[in-house]
Design a protein that fits this description.
Radius of gyration: 19 Å
Distance between the termini: 38 Å
Largest sheet: 14 strands, antiparallel
Oligomer: single chain
Helix content: 10-25%
Structural class: alpha+beta
Strand content: over 45%
Low-confidence stretches: 1-17, 278-305
């Protein structure tokens, strides 16, 4: 899982004392209810590398949209210091608005070509037709917030405060309420690309699953030890009196089905499958696509209580 230059581009500016869009949105969610294996699998996505990728995803979408658009919409400008992707146009049935701004940092006196610096998501949104329940409607997804990356190639620090909102769809039998997801998180990624150790903590949540405190301790991602899951470490999720612990064991039990161990309130619950390190930095396009699907699913999820 190598770190490409594009994949390490991140968003950021110093957060104000009252917090950014993500922090503010998280305050509106009720505490998460973590009771089942499905709940655990949802929250298992909130590990440090996945939090980093959640903050990076809007920029990735913005850049990819300019690369695949034949109509020059959205637009991209680069003056050598700042990259700006701007909406205010319609192409291929999608309407783009707002902007993403990336400001390169200087490392050892030189402008970084490895993604260090800061981004701002300024109500960057895509609006287009979608289908559900046999009908059609218009859906709008908007990103606001910041993500920053500092340090060196072997000792990186990141901070994000991001809100993702879906305006909902409504047309005939096809209807869904407005929903949102938010993240306020900081962490580190240390070591060479071939073996990176992740640590971090913060809060994550959404309209549908509530909010929880999340932290990752020494999650090791090493393709040499296991290419399908994290090699070692743990992620802890705390919501009120409920404590979920996800333990990675790829170094001793590397499964192609990406298994992890989990416990709930100190009681061993066995294994979960499909919990991989796909969203680790390296962020190949397939990895980012998987994360996008996961986030979309998270937003749409209906809690059956």
């Amino acid at each position: 899982m190598k770190l490409s230059r594009v994949s390490m581009l991140v968003v950021g500016s110093v957060l104000t004392a009252c917090g950014g869009p993500g922090s503010q949105q998280l305050g509106s969610y009720p505490p998460a209810k973590i009771q089942t294996a499905d709940d655990a699998k949802t929250w298992a996505r909130m590990s440090a590398p996945n939090m980093y990728s959640a903050g990076y995803l809007p920029y990735s979408l913005a850049v990819l949209s300019t690369q695949f658009s034949d109509a020059g919409c959205p637009t991209r400008t680069d003056d050598g210091t700042t990259i700006r992707v701007s909406g205010g146009c319609t192409a291929a049935g999608n309407t783009w608005s707002g902007a993403v701004v990336y400001e390169r940092a200087r490392v050892n006196g030189e402008l970084s070509d490895a993604g260090f610096g800061s981004y701002r998501y300024e109500s960057f949104a895509i609006e287009g037709n979608t289908t559900c329940d046999g009908g059609t409607g218009v859906s709008k997804t908007t990103y606001d917030g910041t993500l920053s990356l500092t340090g060196t190639s072997d000792a990186r620090e990141f901070k994000l405060d991001v809100r993702m909102a879906n305006g909902g769809i409504a047309s005939g039998v096809c209807a869904a309420p407005a929903q949102s997801a938010a993240y306020a998180y900081s962490g580190t990624a240390n070591g060479p690309n071939e073996r990176t150790t992740w640590n971090g903590s913060g809060r994550a949540g959404s309209t549908t699953i509530g909010v929880a405190d999340v932290s990752t301790k020494d999650e090791v991602i090493s393709s040499a030890e296991c290419g399908s899951e994290a090699a070692s470490g743990a992620t802890t999720v705390t919501a009120g009196s409920t404590k979920l612990v996800i333990t990675y064991d790829g170094a001793t039990k590397c499964d192609t089905t990406s298994t992890v161990k989990w416990s709930l309130n100190g009681v061993d619950q066995g294994e979960l499958t499909g919990v991989s390190c796909a969203a680790a930095p390296g962020g190949e396009l397939a990895s980012l696509a998987l994360l996008g699907v996961a986030l979309a699913s998270w937003l749409r999820r209906r809690a059956a209580r």
